[in-house]
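so the lab meeting is tmrw and i was supposed to have these ready like two days ago... anyway. pasting both below. for each one the top line is the aa sequence and the line under it is the structure tokens. i havent really looked at them closely yet so no promises
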Amino acid sequence: MGDEDTERSKLIEALRQVAAHDRAALHLVYDMTSAKLFGICLRICADREAAEDILQDVYIKVWNRADRFDAARASPITWLCTIARNSAIDWCRSARRPATLPQEAAEDIPDEAR
């Protein structure tokens, strides 16, 4: 079994333990995934402080929903990334923050002063 399979198995088992409300298991899930999930939150909301708040919300959701995780249907990291992505999108919608476009998009706006 490769390192990736070992990590996946470890994460699956930790999520099973989180479903039984094992706090140490939640801490392990956090240690194994927080950097990736924070990156997702930050990329979507583009606000570091908000991304930290969203990430906290993600782990609350994991705590409350770990019993819904099914390793036969999805990989654990995919399941966690989906929670993070949806949480960040929900935050953007609730904050009514417009989607940001790259700076290059401004080049396409005509300058009527010319």
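ok protien two:
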Amino acid sequence: MSFQSLLLPLVRRLPGPVRKKLRIIKGYRHRRSIALAYALPAVRMAKDWAMKEKELSNFYYDLAPGNRDHLVQLIATITGTPYEVVSNYMTELENDHALKAHLTQYMKASRYGDDIEIAYGRRLGWYAIARIKKPNVLVETGVDHGVGSCVLASALLRNAAEGSPGTYYGTEIRPEAGALLAGEYATTGRILYGDSIETLKSFDEPIEMFVNDSDHSGEYEYREYQTIAGKLTLGAIILGDNAHVTDSLSRFSRESGRKFVFFAEKPLDHWYPGAGIGISY
């Protein structure tokens, strides 16, 4: 008779809470190994990332291939655009060597981080939608360095080359922000400095595409949407860069009779779990 079989009758006589504690102890290692299989790869990537001069916010990464496919499918569905056309627009941005050189040159000159490698993540979706919608007026609130601004400006430049010019307006409270919107990219529009909501209140052009990426408090974000509500054209589209944190764009969409969907990022080979795009249309 084994030692384990001898112990079994004794264990059965123990109070229920004690037996449960023993079961927890017995299964601890197995459960831990299951959990760490998910968590450790991100920890290892975070350690490698921390040993380099990388960006401290607005992280740069590619989308996992399957996640990119999901984004293409989503945009194709909500815009009625063929899958191949949406995917080709994303490829167009990925292969835009002039834009990549412009962004990389600034990062090196500014010494923001010598090991930064520009990648667009969810901004691929911003670009594809701007290419599909071909907005006359595109507004982005919050520009930081201006990577997203240049992505959107690049889309407008290509639209203009195809006979559909548009104007970019960024809003930004910090006067030092937006340095990347320079050269040919600055020919598409400009940055309006000051409080975003105050700027939007006095903005008097119809808005066909709006990208929220400013103050990430839910209430401020919601007030931005309220401020532009009467300025949106029929068929205007809103992209929310904070929809993975707040329900502000979903709430605004419900209240204004708009449709809302959310795309969740899955970064490729990066410790950051990803953000997403809230889309109101």
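from a quick look at the 2nd one: The chain has a mean pLDDT of 93. The beta strands are 137-141, 167-172, 189-193, 207-212, 232-240, 260-264, 276-280. will dig more after coffe
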